[in-house]
Amino acid sequence: MKTLIVYGSKYGCTEECACLLRDELGETDLADVGRPHSVSLDAYDTVLIGSPVYIGKLDKNVIQFCNARLATLTEKRIGLFICAGEPDKAIEQLEAGFPKELVEVARAKGYFGYRIQLKKLSLLDQILLTGVGKRRNEEDIRRGAIDDFAKTFLQEH
Fold this sequence. Notes:
Layout: E1 3-7, H1 13-25, E2 28-32, E3 46-54, E4 57-58, H2 60-68, H3 70-73, E5 77-83, H4 90-97, H5 100-105, E6 106-111, E7 113-116, H6 123-131, E8 138-141, H7 143-154
Parallel strand pairs: 1-2, 1-3, 3-5, 5-6
Antiparallel strand pairs: 3-4, 7-8
């Protein structure tokens, strides 16, 4: 059984979490939807999809990827995960952001935490974050959540 992790990552947190997930799963391929290449899903029976959340919205490239391949994805073993700065709203944002068809068939839904590095942010993102009270670097990568998410798929092998 082959596994693919597809993700979008604006500042690197979701990419890091995708790599941590890959390390837990073992032989797994990664694909960043923000980089130009075509991803063929034919060789994979499991597809795990991750997105950052900015201002309550999932990454547009991730959503475009999902919508363009919806029929194929719903035939695979699916897992969905996000990285977001509002833990209390995370699963709600995941379920509202991903296509309903994927949310319904997902074997696992995960919240992997967040990282804010103010120096890496665009000026607009800095302004938006300071407007909601985020004025310093913060990190809360939830390795336990990543491990639990991975176990869902490892137990099915």
